[in-house]
Specification:
With 441 residues, this protein is mostly helical. 74% of the residues lie in helices and 0% in strands. The protein is built from 16 helices and no strands. It is globular and about 70 Å long.
């Protein structure tokens, strides 16, 4: 008998709604610290706008720095939320229910943060409308064969569908909060719940709509990061021009997103006493999935070296030799160890059921995935075809400040959400109890 089956409807409501009680002083201290991080990032961005894009460490030949690294990183984080909420929903995997809401929220916030970086990288952000695909008298009609235009369409579509999917799932729970709230809070949740009363007809439309969005979001999981990978694969830069980039990027994105789910859920279950809902069994299933994605990522690393050797192309061979033994070899080995070797510890049952190990390994995988983007993006353009054009890149303090601001903004949005909205889907948890009871009967 599972722990979920032992839960009652009343306990689920009491536990989840209990997380919405008046925040403590510690909560506001955390919010204040994150706001300071966001302000620091905004000041750095304002400084860059005032003095120009040269405030960053970009140079010739490395014109793409941390802004593109962070863009790809956050798009990757956004992937796993849809994997957990949509794909696992279609497969009726009940263990995803306790973590689906947090994963969907992570998706919406992460893809929003990712969308900021093309603006930051532009420098003159007020000219962003040049990127929009519309005809004009200046003959600036975009090149529809460019993956950068694909990016804009794919990511805006992904953000729209993910947001609708997330909000649709929230509706019944918003109505539960409304029915127990008073004063201004009740008025706010009355608006947000869109008149939900729980009638049979509403439930019928809800279940169909949720299933429809799950089916619509599933191909987007594959398409969005495939499109991001084409930003690199469609070029002729050594180390980038590869046909395996799309599956390689998708697997890596899911790998990093699953690790971020653990990073967010483990403190959340402790602070809000969700241990009986987000059980160790649920976290263990996430860990098992990380083993699978880690093996795919490790296989992709190996295949890249095999293809370079098999091609007999001396430029490709030199590019991959330099990755492992050149100026960025430390970043390369951090990437390999954190993404491919450390997750193998989850083969040991004692480790994958240990909260401390789960949290520590999730942090290491996130670090490794950030460095994977660093190695691919910086390593490719820093060591191209012509030796006299080789160069190195290190981020400037302004770039570090903007990166701090982006991470602070992501965690600030998440912290605000989990304290003011149901961070676990009460509706889906109750469905889990029903299904468990049906199987038991």
């Amino acid at each position: 008998m599972s722990q979920e089956f032992e839960l009652s409807y009343g306990e689920i409501d009491y536990t989840v709604l209990g997380s919405l009680r008046r925040p403590s002083s510690g909560y506001w201290l955390l919010v204040g610290a994150l706001v300071l991080g966001v302000v620091a990032g905004a000041i750095c961005w304002a400084y860059q706008i005032a003095v120009g894009i040269g405030a960053g460490g970009q140079n010739i030949p490395v014109a793409w720095g941390t802004y593109l690294i962070n863009f790809v990183f956050w798009v990757g984080i956004a992937h796993s939320g849809t994997l957990i909420s949509a794909i696992l929903h279609l497969f009726r995997a009940g263990w995803r229910n306790p973590i689906a809401r947090a994963a969907e929220t992570m998706t919406v916030f992460a893809v929003s943060i990712a969308g900021l970086f093309p603006f930051i990288h532009l420098g003159r952000v007020w000219l962003v409308y040049y990127m929009l695909p519309y005809p004009n008298q200046r003959n600036l009609w975009p090149n529809f064969q460019s993956p950068l235009v694909f990016d804009m369409v794919a990511i805006s579509t992904y953000l729209t569908v993910s947001s609708l999917f997330w909000y649709t799932g929230l509706l019944p729970d918003l109505a539960v909060v409304r029915d127990r709230a008073e004063g201004l809070r009740r008025k706010i949740f009355t608006v947000l719940s869109l008149g939900w009363t729980g009638k049979h007809e509403q439930w019928r439309h809800y279940t169909r709509g949720y299933l429809f969005f799950a089916a619509l979001a599933t191909p987007l999981v594959v398409s969005v990061h495939s499109v991001v990978s084409w930003d690199f694969a469609l070029s002729v830069v050594p180390g980038w021009h590869s046909t395996i980039f799309a599956p390689y990027f998708v697997a890596g994105a899911i790998h990093s997103g699953l690790a971020m789910v653990l990073t967010l859920m483990i403190p959340l279950r402790k602070v809000f006493n969700f241990e009986r809902i987000v059980t160790v069994d649920v976290l263990e299933n996430v860990a098992k999935t990380i083993i699978f994605t880690g093996l795919i990522v490790g296989y992709a690393y190996g295949v890249e070296y095999f293809l370079a050797w098999y091609s007999s192309n001396i430029v490709e061979q030199e590019a991959f030799r330099w990755r492992a033994m050149g100026a960025y070899s430390l970043e390369f080995w951090i990437m390999v160890v954190c993404n491919s070797l450390v997750p193998l510890l989850f083969f040991i049952k004692r480790i994958r059921r240990s909260i401390a190990w789960l949290f520590g390994i999730s942090l290491l995988v996130n670090v490794g995935m950030w460095y994977e983007r660093f190695v691919i993006i910086i390593g490719g353009v820093a060591h191209g075809f012509i030796p006299h054009a080789w160069g190195l890149y290190r981020p400037s303090l302004i770039e570090y400040g903007i990166m701090l601001g982006s991470f602070s903004l992501f965690f600030l949005l998440f912290v605000l959400f989990v304290k003011h909205f149901p961070s676990i889907s009460m509706t889906e948890m109750k469905e889990t109890i029903q299904e468990e009871a049906a199987h038991a009967g």
